[in-house]
Amino acid sequence: MRYATVTLTWKTGSIHPLDELFANIDDVSIESIRYVSPIRDGEYIELLTFRGDPDRVRKRLADSSHALEYGVSGDEGGQRGVAYVTCRNVGLVADLLAILRDHDIVLDWPIRYQDGTAHGVRGLELTVIGTGDGIQQATATLPEEITLEVQRLGEYDLSPRRFDAGLTERQQEVFDVANRLGYYEIPRETTQAEVAATLDIATGTVGEHLRHIEVKFASAHAHNGSSR
């Protein structure tokens, strides 16, 4: 069983109608697509995480022809939240999900939005799991609008790092960025300051998150080892 973590970018327009809905609001953006599932012909339910004012998100969804029903909740500071939306369509995301189904490939949720990709535009980072042939065939059938860049590729295993460490959503986000930039490579290919700049948070905050992450990984590894 193989996995591939890839970044998808697109030349024009948006890959998702709701992404386009928030594209021109400076202080609101979709961070990740936690889940998407078809429910009726041309209709989907999905769970999104966003950064920004929940009230502005509600107003945009209320004005959108794509959002049929929705629910929005935010954190106490009003700067991050979750939206549950019933949509008329999910654009190219639906095409991607259909390609994965056609080739018996599992999507490892969530799909995360990435800023500042190698192409200088916003992209989606996702991990897929399947046979090597299936993954290769799926990448060959991507829509012309999408460019794919492979970040990581290899044998898939149920490591404590991915499943048993019990990271919070924010810790997972910091870990994913640090891992993608090469923080855990030997020698290291990035610094905590560069990770912080990518996430637009303080370097000290990144350092604190990474310390908690490493403690949780060590604890999960020790627990798994003692149960064998």
Automatic annotation (TrEMBL):
Stretches assigned to the HTH bat-type domain: 167-216
Domain HVO-0513-like N-terminal: 16-156
Annotated InterPro entries: HTH_bacterioopsin, HVO_0513_N, WH-like_DNA-bd_sf
Recorded superkingdom: Archaea
Keywords for the protein's UniProt record, in alphabetical order: Transcription, Transcription regulation
Protein name as annotated: Helix-turn-helix domain-containing protein
